[in-house]
Every structure is written in C-alpha cells, then in structure tokens.
Design brief:
- By secondary structure, the chain is of the alpha/beta class.
- It contains 14 helices and 11 strands.
- The protein is globular, with a radius of gyration of 20 Å.
Length: about 375
C-alpha cells in the first residue's frame, strides 16, 4: 500500500473526475441489470456450470429467528450445497460436543455442508464483547465448535469502521488481532480448522486484511471474503477479490449499487444481479483462483450508506488509500444508479414484512446465481 495519493489532491481529483455528481447522476447501468431479469422460466440457454458450491449466510434471513435445524431445512428447500452459520445464536446455547455432532449429522443427512462463524476477536475493537470470555477464549471455543460441526473454517471479525479512528488506528487493531490469532495457532492446526478473518463493516481494506493474514500465518489463517463490505472501504469487489483470492477460504457475498450524493457517494447492497458489480467477471476470477471455496450469499439490502469522501475529515480513516484502488471504485460508481430503500410498515405488520423481504431477496439471489452465473452443485 505504498502507492498513495495526498488526500487533498485526491479530493480535487475526485471532484473533477467522472465520479462527479453530473456524470454519476445519469445513472449509467452496466449490462448486469439486463441479465438480472432472467427468471426460472427463462434460464440462459448456454449457461456454463462452474462447479462452485452454493449456499447462504444465516444473516441473510436474520428476521426469521431460526435455529440451526430450521436453517438447514431452508438450505435444503432452496437446493443449497452449504449453510454458513455466522453466529452462535442458532445453537440455543447448546455448544457441547454431542449437540454439535448431532447438528452436523442432521445437515449431512440432508446434503448440506456447514460452516461456522462468530464475531470480534480483537480485544481493543469497539465491537468486542466478553460474552464468551476473553478474545482467546472466544477463538478457542469457535475452533472447537467448528471441528464438531465438520466446518473447515471458523469466521471471525476484527470490528468495524470506527476502529480505523481509534488510538493507533487500524494498524494497532491489526496488531492486537494478530496476537490473539497466534495464541490459538496450535488449536486451529490440531483441529484442521482455518480461521477466516472477514473484511467487515468498513474495518479492513483488502490490502490490510492480506497483511493481517501474512503476519498471523497463512498456514492457519485465511479470509472470509465479503463483497458488500468491500464497497464500504471504497473498493470494487472484483479488485478486492484479486488482492485476497490467495487467502479466501469461505465467503459472504452480495451485490450492490453505488451512486452520487452531496458529500460523495451512497452505497446500497442488493440481491445478486441487481447491482452494478460485474458478477460474471467476478466469478471468472473466483473460479480460477478460489478453487473448492463455497459461495455463500448474505443479502443485506434495503438501506443506503453514504461515504462522504468529499469531506476532508473522511480521509482520517484512510490515510494511505491506494490511488489505483480508488480509481477502480470510481469506475464501478459510473455504472451505478440510485435505488429506493425498503420501508417496512409500522406496527404489527413490520416483522412479517421484514421476513418476507429477506426471504425474497435470498431466493432471488440463489436463483440468479444458479440460473445466470452457473453456481451450485446439487440439482
């Protein structure tokens, strides 16, 4: 990340570039939007099957409040190859070996693979909670649970965007996370479980996450790649994938739109095929460089986040943003357009509306991945 640009120069360049409000305001959309109209009744006649397993991240249907077995049942209903349970909640506190073995068998009997995750293992992150003891205790518990479930990976996070503004910045938080990771190296290797650190909620730029993995040890640490979160660090998800591909062991993926705002741009995550990310090219690269990695869909849509990069204070969180990476984000933004947020009704109907919205988003995404992108293994 040594090729940097002075923030003041960047602001001027950004305001004069094709990322201007006028240029972006035209709402130029790439060919992906046309492809997104494919339906189950009219699949692409020349679809190329990629042989990439397909599943979903349970956070995509968080409003359902399902337990682990119910999530497995939904994965089977959708014809998924895998289910990524990224928090301990669905296990209802039953984290003993026998209970987890039983859930693992329940999933296996239905042809659904399992992967496991949890939250922050950085003890100095603004997001860290002591629900599972120390950071080391939390990580050790997750490794043991992953082994019991038959998961090859255990997903963790550093934190979120606010950690970039803490004392010492993101470099200090990376150092703290690496220390915790190294404390559990032997446990991870003995269990045959790789710890998968996610680029989460604007905390880590892809190049920073790659550095974290290398510093901790790529023999037992890898990446859970989140394409939507890459947008929050001003990255084209394809560019971020190119950086992280050698380390990716699992995924939480979604599409997204980017468009201009008064202060910079807005980003809104979408169902697969409904954003401006070049998904065919993305999965061409994924297929070549991430063999045997499962694609999990984590749809989190319906709201926009503003990235106010036209304000000088914004760059305090990104003092060393690579100019080439930001240029690719600019190019992505030129393909995007504004979309309306989802607004659930107030009152008793709210929960049901949120559940229906999340279920529909995930179902459309799985269908698009299978019928347009050629993902999925089982029939």
């Amino acid at each position: 990340m040594n090729k940097t640009k002075n923030p003041n120069t960047m602001h001027k360049t950004m305001s004069q570039s094709a990322l201007s409000r006028r240029a972006l305001g035209r709402g130029l959309v790439g060919g992906l939007l046309a492809a997104a109209t494919a339906t189950a009744a009219d699949p692409a006649p020349s679809i190329r099957r990629r042989g990439i397993p397909l599943g979903f991240d349970n956070f995509a249907v968080r409003a359902m409040g399902w337990n682990a077995r119910e999530l497995v049942d939904h994965a089977e209903k959708l014809g998924c190859d895998s289910l990524f349970i990224t928090d301990f909640g669905p296990f209802g506190g039953q984290t003993d070996d026998d209970s987890l073995d039983e859930i693992g068998r329940y999933a296996s009997d239905r042809g659904v693979g399992l992967e496991l995750g949890s939250w922050s293992i950085c003890p100095t992150s603004t997001t860290f909670r002591k629900d599972w003891g120390s950071a080391e205790d939390h990580l050790a518990l997750g490794i043991r649970m992953a082994k019991d479930l038959g998961s090859k990976a255990f997903r963790v996070i550093l934190g979120n965007h606010q950690d970039r503004l803490t004392d010492g910045g993101i470099d200090a938080r990376i150092a703290d996370t690496v220390k915790v990771l190294k404390s559990c190296r032997a446990k991870a290797l003995d269990a045959g479980v790789k710890i998968a650190v996610e680029n989460h909620a604007g905390d880590l730029h892809s190049r920073e996450l790659a550095r974290l993995v290398e510093e901790a040890g790529p023999d037992f640490v890898g990446v859970n790649f989140d394409s939507g979160n890459a947008l929050w660090t001003l990255e084209d998800p394809l560019a971020a994938l190119e950086t992280l591909a050698p380390h990716v062991v699992t995924t939480s993926l979604r599409d997204g739109q980017v468009w201009p705002s008064e202060k910079g741009v807005k980003v809104q995550w979408t169902a697969m095929g409904e954003g401006c990310v070049d998904l065919p090219t993305f999965f061409d690269h994924f297929q070549k460089h991430c063999p045997d990695v499962v694609v999990h869909i984590e749809t989190i849509s319906g709201f926009a986040r503003e990235l106010p990069f036209l304000e000088p204070d914004f760059w305090k969180a990104f003092p060393a943003m690579p100019a080439a990476d930001f240029a690719r984000f600019e190019a992505l933004a030129r393909r995007g357009h504004a979309i309306d947020p989802f607004q659930a009704p107030d009152g008793d109907a709210r929960k049901g509306a949120e559940q229906a919205y999340q279920l529909a988003d995930l179902e459309r995404s799985i269908r698009y991945c299978r019928e347009t992108l050629g993902l999925g293994v089982r029939g």
